[in-house]
């Protein structure tokens, strides 16, 4: 037993495909502490989304164990929230109505949720936009709404699958800084999927480096850069060292 919040042991996932079994994850083991910011980084097809879906209880593992606080993670739970590259907002609902939806679905106290919604809109920088519709917002603003909605029912763990991957570089950088600010304020445990090595180093406490065919955890990198992080940190020689260490683990050090 460890005091980890999330623990995975010998996780394997085999998909049945028309051309035979496909090993998406092979013998992956890890432990994540409460409040950690973890990134999963690796090339396309190394099993990042598969691992995230298993953590979210959306995908069954083929072998191995995975638990949150010692409880088997075999189904979706309300204390784990997921966010994807596209915000999946309901176009006919306003920003406020989208953010309040999880609370309504879960039957949470309406008055408390209404107040929380206003706090969250403030937190993600959308004060004054509550009555807008998603079509009236930029891509970055829509992901801010998705982030507020993710936080609405108070999950302990945020699973984020390339949440800013569809945004332009400027907006993406802004959103990464916003995410760090919110993470520092809320103390959530975050597992963040990206194929951008620099982004993984910039954001994380630890980076899980994954390699494909079959998807394996090649190693874990401790990011010993100070917090709070700022864009200036990318000039730090240690930042480059860590990026190149990961590139080496992925075999792209050419
Ligand atoms: N439902 C499925 N059925 C069959 N094969 C699948 C399924 N989902 C994923 N795979 C395969 O499993 C492997 C891992 O896929 P996964 O999406 O987890 O990788 P990834 O690292 O997230 O990739 P990307 O960065 O492109 O999203 C890939 O070879 C993929 O084709």
Question: Key features?
Answer:
7 helices, 26% strand, 254 residues, Rossmann fold, alpha/beta, six-stranded mixed beta sheet, 2 domains, binds adenosine-5'-triphosphate, four-stranded antiparallel beta sheet
In brief, what are we looking at here?
Helix content is about 35%, strand content about 25%. It is α/β, with parallel strands linked by helices.
Characterization of this structure:
By secondary structure, this protein is of the alpha/beta class. The chain has helices at 48-55, 95-105, 110-123, 139-152, 169-186, 197-203, 237-249; strands at residues 6-17, 20-32, 37-41, 63-68, 71-72, 80-83, 157-161, 189-194, 206-211, 216-222. It is built from seven helices and ten strands. The chain folds into two domains: 1-79 and 170-253, P-loop containing nucleotide triphosphate hydrolases (Rossmann fold, 3-Layer(aba) Sandwich); 85-154, no CATH class. The site of adenosine-5'-triphosphate has 14 residues, from strand 1, strand 2 and helix 1. Keywords: ATP-binding, Nucleotide-binding, Transport. One of its GO terms (molecular function) is ATP hydrolysis activity. Residues 6-237 form the ABC transporter domain.
> What is the name of the CATH superfamily of the largest domain?
P-loop containing nucleotide triphosphate hydrolases
Number of strands: 10
Helix content: 25-40%
Please give the order of strands in the largest beta sheet. 6-7-8-3-9-10
Q: List the helices and strands in order.
A: EEEHEEEHHHEHEHEEH
Largest sheet: 6 strands, mixed
Residue runs with pLDDT of under 50 for 5 or more positions: none
Structure annotation, total helices: 7
Mean pLDDT, rounded to whole units?
A: 94
Small-molecule components bound: adenosine-5'-triphosphate
Shape by Cα distribution: globular
N→C terminal distance:
41 Å
- Oligomer kind: single chain
The CATH topology of the largest domain turns out to be Rossmann fold
What is the class of the largest domain in the CATH system?
Alpha Beta
